[in-house]
Amino acid sequence: xxxxxxSRKTARQYYGDPLLGNLIDAVFKKYQGQNGVRxxxxxxxxxxxxxxxxxxxxxxxxxxxxxxxxxxxxxLKVFAEELQLGYRLSIPDLYEVLKGEMLLTKLEQRQLxxxxxxxxxxxxxxxxxxxxxxxxxxxVFRAETFDWLKRLEGGEAxxxxxxxxxxxxxxxxxDALFCCLKGLWYLLVxxxxxxxxxxxxxxxxxxxxxxxxVTSDKDSHGxxxxxxxxxxxxxxxxxxxxxxxxxxxxxxxxxLIVPEYMQKRQIYRNFGLKDDDISSFSHVFAPHFVSGTSPxxxxxxxxxxxxxxxxYSALYVFxxxxxxxxxxxxxxxxxxxxGLSLEQIPKKFPALLCTSGxxxxxxxxxxxxxxEANPNCLIRxxxxxxxxxxxxxxxxxxxxxxxxxxxxMDDKTYRNYSDAxxxxxxxQDKTVLKRMGDxxxxxxxxxxxxIYQEEFVKDLAEDVLETIRQEKxxx
Length: 475
Known about the structure:
Helix content is about 55%, strand content about 10%. It contains 24 helices and ten strands. Helix 18 (about 320-335) links the parallel strand 7 (about 315-320) and strand 8 (about 350-355).
């Protein structure tokens, strides 16, 4: 979940560059006209700035210099493959990220009138009346959903691509839409009925419990993101939330208050559904959060329900658990040698956190809470020196730009440890790294090896201990 949000944000930053605008628009136009990934997108370069940006984008794939007035073309197949490789997005996904609306090919626009598409909606209406006694023409339902179903059928509402894809793949699109609409009915029209059925006294309903009482096969995973009905329900709620803002029933600023990594969860919460806030966790070793010599595993619910956070001077974030454990061992030894216990460390001392790979919402929330308590808290991140490690670093940097600092994730560290005995970066990895353009990625492309965080753990430990020595001297 968190990876998807990060990829979309990074893609928006990269492809949202105005100097790539002509190329991106040409790709979208060609995709529409060719009904998919076919043919070449062509543009005429209009300025020297655009020429230089395109030269950087294409790199050594072009054998000639791009100048103002040059005609440039790119095969949509190549563009789509690199977009999927670098950001896990399709061309329609990128269009929605950049434009805020769906990309429909000419063929898709014609297919909206197909009998098969219309039949889905006719059958769903009939089944909801017969099986659930739900009338989708109910005025309250139509008003609360802003006529989402009608707009969906016309290809104008979020969720269209989810349902269209299910139909094209031969999935049971009728059942997915049936479960989604039944869920919307209970959330927006008849919530008391579902709460009585569940025996619920508090405001929120947990999604798996809601799913087992709504889905056709009583599947507790029926509204998971991996299921068509789950994605369809989320997009419906997202669409309705946006319509509420447009209608003045909700302030647009409310959306901005929620961190981007929490926005997907927040959509559920806006409608009284509670997401899984226990499975999302991070490992923390921090004064006043742990006692003894072991890190503590905190889940998202614990972090969000915790009171006032300590004002840590810095937060060291590591990708790998073994690295965190090693540094804790060194830290405990340092404290023992100085006659101190963890409980005696002042609150402002640095805290340690491990993401165990791709950061979950819990890790990002812990970082956010630390910054809220102390806006001057420095977020120092270190991970593996391979493509996923660099991408994770960029993702966290994108979330916490102003107080972020990478440590031991630089070209100097990479050169110090790289040699021929390391695992090699793949051609695809180097292709993505080449597009990043910073000093670290350039050196990684040049030397072409993977260096894991565990290899330079001694340096990491020394960095942390030096910070603690300085804090101790200040005390």
